[in-house]
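Q: I'm building a small set of examples for a reading group on sequence design. Run inverse folding on the following structure and report the sequence directly after it, with nothing in between.
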């Protein structure tokens, strides 16, 4: 299980080097139960983010879904709503299949996705009710102070690649690359295995292996981000091995921590 430890690492890394008296402006880019790894770590990551907002450490500018299953955006809304942050406080963006180069095929998310959306209240239930992820990115970045924003990437890199390729719009006359150069201080990526991954690339950088087309799309996006991300923005890669010893959840964890199971 790589999910929970990755959630811890991604949001921790997003604060490295940017901590100050002011809250860190943060955008979370998540696959939320429907990405290459198809796990539950992002629920913890987004809950941690909201907790950091509560303590005044983070200014959450937006949350964007980087994969195709439509109800995953609903889970983001469920979690934010639970913490009292609906769309007027935190915009939600979703991977848009109409975006140039956006060709992910639909896959089934983990069962918890539909369960949360069906059983808990939220303003958004699916991706059709969310804004385009690139729109959320560009609007948030355009309004932010220069060299101030941290991005925590805890999924595949489709949105990041689309942002990089985006052109001027109503929010800014800058291209996506120029907007990143001016506004983004740090991109913290949960992805990869170092010094090498061997025969099985880590799922966030390759989209997993359940769908060959999506594997190719996600791999191409990761390659583009790694090669072309502006050098003015710090880029941190937190690999699988960094959090390998951090184990949470499951029957064994509950046996050691009985209060969690009750």
């Amino acid at each position: 299980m790589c999910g929970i430890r990755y959630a811890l690492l991604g949001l921790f890394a997003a604060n490295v080097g940017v901590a100050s008296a002011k809250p860190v402006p943060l955008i979370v880019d998540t696959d939320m139960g429907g990405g290459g790894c198809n796990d539950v770590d992002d629920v913890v990551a987004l809950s941690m983010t909201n907790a950091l907002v509560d303590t005044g450490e983070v200014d959450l500018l937006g949350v964007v879904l980087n994969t195709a299953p439509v109800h995953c955006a609903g889970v983001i809304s469920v979690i934010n709503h639970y913490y009292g942050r609906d769309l007027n406080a935190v915009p939600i963006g979703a991977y848009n299949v109409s975006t140039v180069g956006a060709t992910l095929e639909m896959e089934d998310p983990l069962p918890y996705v539909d369960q949360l959306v069906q059983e808990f209240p939220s303003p958004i239930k699916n991706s059709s009710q969310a804004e385009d992820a690139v729109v959320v990115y560009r609007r948030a970045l355009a309004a932010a102070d220069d060299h101030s924003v941290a991005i925590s990437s805890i999924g595949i890199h489709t949105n990041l690649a689309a942002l990089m390729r985006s052109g001027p719009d109503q929010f800014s006359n800058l291209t996506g690359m120029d907007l990143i150069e001016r506004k983004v201080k740090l991109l913290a990526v949960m992805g990869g295995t170092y010094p090498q991954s061997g025969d099985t690339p880590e799922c966030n950088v390759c989209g997993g292996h359940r769908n060959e087309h999506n594997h190719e799309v996600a791999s191409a996006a990761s390659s583009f981000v790694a090669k072309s991300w502006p050098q003015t923005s710090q880029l941190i890669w937190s690999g699988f091995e960094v959090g390998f010893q951090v184990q949470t959840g499951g029957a064994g964890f509950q046996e050691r921590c009985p209060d969690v199971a009750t």
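The longest helix spans residues 212-228.
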